[in-house]
Amino acid sequence: MNYVLVTVLLGVKHYNLNNNSEVLINMGASGKERYMSIEQLKQEIPDFAKDIRLNVSNLFGNMAQSGLTETQFYGVALAVAYTLKDRRIIDAIKADGALYITAELDHAVQTAAALMAMNNIYYRAIHLAENKELASLPANLRMNGMINPGVPKADFELFALAVSAINGCGMCIHSHVKQLLEHELNKIAVQSVLRIAAVLNACSFALSQNEL
């Protein structure tokens, strides 16, 4: 018995066809790749997490009050999604933010997520060790991607803060908040980054319960 494997939104449907091929399809009517929107993603959140569903709605529905530009907002959200390794959220953000997420922004976001995956572990451990001699040693970690990330410095700091919030590095969070305030970003913008990280983390958790 042969099947064509078809992906429809989050679900996977099997169709019994008379051929010898197995094809993964994720296409819309236009023949282009089809991504779930934030609105569609929100509807997949289980009822036990209704508060999270409403928070996702408020987050993306009140972007103008976030203190962030659209590019910053979607960049922060995408940085969080990459860190969560949640393909559904990644795709939904890319679909909703298609007008703002350029190849350069996507590259910068992934650079921030990758570097923070390293830095958050190292500097959190250094901080928790509470050893002055250990803290005084050079990190000897290459971080050249932070020098010229291809986006404004403040934007990269926003992405790094979002990832650091997910990874729980207090030293990194303190450093990035300090840098952002020095770049004259207001506290509402900084708070919005933390809200995006918190809500999308909860969204990813709630969606994962559908798969257990």
Quick structural summary:
It contains nine helices and two strands.
Give the termini distance in whole angstroms. Answer: 28 Å
Mean pLDDT reading: 87
Query: What structural class do you assign from the helix and strand content?
Result: mainly alpha
The unreliable regions are 1-34
User: Would you identify the CATH H-level superfamily of the largest domain?
Assistant: AhpD-like
Strand content: 5-15%
- Our Rg estimate from Cα atoms comes to 20 Å
The 3D shape can be described as: globular
Helix/strand order: EEHHHHHHHHH
How helix-rich are the residues, as a percent range? 55-70%
Active site: 169, 172
Family: Belongs to the AhpD family.
Pfam families: CMD (PF02627)
Protein name: Alkyl hydroperoxide reductase AhpD
Describe this structure in words.
The relative contact order is 0.15. The protein has two domains: 1-34, no CATH class; 36-211, AhpD-like (Up-down Bundle), CATH 1.20.1290. With 212 residues, it is mainly alpha-helical. Strand 1 and strand 2 form a beta hairpin. The protein starts with a strand and ends with a helix. The protein is built from nine helices and two strands. 59% of the residues lie in helices and 6% in strands. It has a two-stranded antiparallel ribbon with strand order 1-2. The protein has helices at residues 38-43, 50-61, 70-84, 87-96, 103-129, 132-136, 153-167, 170-182, 187-208; strands at 3-8, 11-16. Its EC number is 1.11.1.28. Belongs to the AhpD family.
Detail the topology: elements first, then pairings.
Layout: E1 3-8, E2 11-16, H1 38-43, H2 50-61, H3 70-84, H4 87-96, H5 103-129, H6 132-136, H7 153-167, H8 170-182, H9 187-208
Antiparallel strand pairs: 1-2
